[in-house]
Amino acid sequence: MYTKQEIIISSFRDGKSQRQIARDLQISRKTIRKYLQEHEKALQSAVCKETAQSCNLSSEPVYKMATPRLRLKLTREVETVIDELLEDNGRKRGQGLRKQMLKKKDILEELHRRGFDIGYTTVCNHIARRENRVVTKEAFIRQVYQAGETCEFDWGEIKLCIAGKRRSLQLAVFTSAFSNYRYAFIYERQDTLAFMESHVRFFKTIGGVYREMVYDNMRVAVARFVGPHEKEPTRSLLQLRGHYQFRHRFCNIYRGNEKGHVERSVEYVRRKAFAPKDAFTGTLEAQQWLDATLGRLNAGKQQGTGKSADELFSQEKDLLGKHPAMELVCSEQVQLRVDKYATISYRTNRYSVPDHLVGEFVDVSVRSRELQVYVQNKRVAVHGRSYEKHSWNVEIEHYLSTFKKKPGALAGSLALAGSHYLKGLYMDYFQ
């Protein structure tokens, strides 16, 4: 409105030309000509020219709205096809088949296959109008946790140099939602035995059991999805629940924020423990270093409360569930046959047993860190578990009877080579 007044006043009062007004106001002459013609027309048709001039100068300019372009390609037939495909997506969503739903790009390809000439943007706009979606940023609700109530668990990968070799190991992290008390263990794999054993060690360490454990959709905890929101726990999780009497809760898919304490704890513990030092002689030394780091972290004052995790944990320790008197044994029971080398093979790795058992079946109790071999409930061999591929783990005492019969086989045997002490003794006194 202000520009319209300037144009009319400059022309009728100051006598400026349209070209000069265009230069002064930096406006096109087409716009100036339009406003002047409208003003002259209003004065000519008015009975009282002063009133008409005042009204015209104070009225806002009227703009012609562009006529909405007809959606020539988005016909009713096209809309019907899109709606049918979206309804089919809805049925699949209800059956838990989210990965088999059509994306917008797939819907466009289906329309092209049926002979419709339509663009991707038009399809997206119709779907957005149909769903009546309002794109807003997600809001989060801060939670308040009760002491001794909730503990969160998660895995994290760490890369360490163990005995000069770079290896990928797994970090099992527990975090109290109330006190932010953290504890973690190092394992070779994210498997069922490590999952169960980490819980056994954690509950034993704190001397009690949290009433609720929170997990994401990890394979060792979720057996399968039943519908879009229901999840069936694994047998190992049910076994832990039954023994320690806690309840479990799963996060929604892609909602790590629902267990935000442990999501941050994995990154935090990994950085604080292994950014300063990542080379160790063995996993035992790495675990000892991790324990010392966690001790310092739990003893540090927290922002907000001004108290340490240890102080807050001492408040909730008496509220934890009672720890069972009997410890849960975490092992996998398998029956294996002893081969001609007096070894059993488990996951490509070989472990020796007494040589008189060649050809016999033995019972093997597999744990995360060791294998125990039994014959008629009598333990006959114990080995540290190997996570390499095609390794041989032999003890020379398992072959004493055979060496008595075949003494010449001793010098080049793997059993002798595996024992540096006996190898040196043999080379010094028997060669």
Q: Care to describe what's here?
A:
The structure is a single chain. The protein is 40% helix and 20% strand. The chain has 431 residues and is an alpha/beta fold. The protein has 4 domains: 2-58; 76-131; 150-317, 2-Layer Sandwich (Nucleotidyltransferase, domain 5); 332-429, no CATH class. Strand 12 and strand 13 (370-375) form a beta hairpin. It is elongated and about 130 Å long. The model is unreliable at 256-262 and 421-430 (pLDDT under 50).
The averaged pLDDT comes out at 83
**Total number of beta strands:** 15
**What's the helix-strand series?**
HHHHHHHEEEHEEEHEHEHHEEEEEEEHHH
Overall helicity: 40-55%
Note the main sheet: 6 strands, mixed
Q: Which second-level CATH architecture of the largest domain applies?
A: 2-Layer Sandwich
Choose one word for the global shape: elongated
**Total helix count?**
15
Stretches with pLDDT under 50, minimum 5 residues: 256-262, 421-430
In terms of structural class, how would the helical and strand content be classed? Answer: alpha/beta
- The CATH H-level superfamily of the largest domain is Ribonuclease H-like superfamily/Ribonuclease H
Distance between the termini: 111 Å
According to CATH, the fold-level topology of the largest domain is Nucleotidyltransferase, domain 5
CATH hierarchy, class of the largest domain: Alpha Beta
> For the CA atoms, what is the radius of gyration?
39 Å
Beta-strand content? 15-25%
Number of domains: 4
